[in-house]
Amino acid sequence: MNENIELIETEKIQNLIYTIRGKQVMLDSDVASLYNYTTKNINKAVKRNIERFPEEFCFQLTEEELKNLRFQIGTSSLKSKNYGGRRYLPYVFTEQGIAMLAGILKNDIAVKVSINIIKAFIEMRKILKLNSNFHFENELYNVQEKIKEHDKKFDQVFDQLQKKQIEEQKIFFQGQIWDSYSLIIDLIQKANKKIVIIDNYVDKTILDMLTKKREKVEVVIITSTNNNKIQNLGIKKFNIQYPTLKLAKKDLFHDRFIIIDNQELYHCGASIKDLGKKCFGINKIEDKKYLEEIVKII
Predict the structure, then answer these.
(1) Contact indicator for 216, 194 with CB cutoff of 8 Å
(2) Using an 8 Å Cβ cutoff, are 92 and 61 in contact?
(3) Are the C-beta atoms of 193 and 217 separated by less than 8 Å?
(4) Angle (nearest 5°) at CA 282 between 280 and 285
(5) CB under 8 Å to 268, separation ≥6 — which residues?
(6) More confident residue, 227 or 169
(7) CA dist., res. 184 & res. 178, Å (int)
(8) pLDDT at position 46, please?
(9) Checking DSSP bridges between strand 58-60 and strand 264-268, what pairing results, if any?
(10) Cβ-contact 261, 189 below 8 angstroms
(11) Which pTM does this prediction carry?
(12) What is the fold of 170-297?
């Protein structure tokens, strides 16, 4: 039964794939619908990460291309999908663009749906090959060989996207509570030996996040002497199940920092308890001298 459902989904997606500029693509509105997002939010995500979307991944249609697309889809379908009422020309995503988009959204639905979309692209390639002439088959074979190499690296792309997001400077806007929370979890899970968290306003929220750390990773929390939001009783109970956590109170810091294995230093523009409430940034400080100085004084 599950295989039949998956087949139907793949066939449905195939009907949403069009050929434009010699590429197989999907409209931004169709991708948004499959991912359970709005088209506006999909395009916002792309614009925030525009360096990850070269033209071979995503491009905006011209008036002429949209006109030709109307002939492919049919006028009635266009009206039902509300393509005609948009104020701007739609964007389209290639197969590579779909893979990149799923990694950026970091959404379980997006990742699962993207797998079905990739399968649909593959099936479309098979159909095109069966119905093509000899000359086109030779060209398609060369493309297919390149895509096979891409398919082998598909999982690696997702892994690298996640790792790269941690390495780069990241800005979060008001309301991005889950995205910022998820990035802090990624940092916590990155540690193999020790995590140092410097935050004058940290509260029990951090204890919930630290349950995601690797086993036997030591944690040191440094907070203000005036901060009574984390009680010693909470620390003792936490250590029974997730050892070892130490709490130190020092009035040496104004900003928030996270140190991973005494090797990587991250600056956090907001207190961990306030993630996503206002616009803020998290970035890695590459200069090792600052890491060394902070390690000395703690």
Answers:
(1) no
(2) yes
(3) yes
(4) 140
(5) 184, 199, 255, 256, 257, 258, 280, 282
(6) 227
(7) 10
(8) 92
(9) unpaired
(10) no
(11) 0.48
(12) Endonuclease; Chain A (3.30.870)
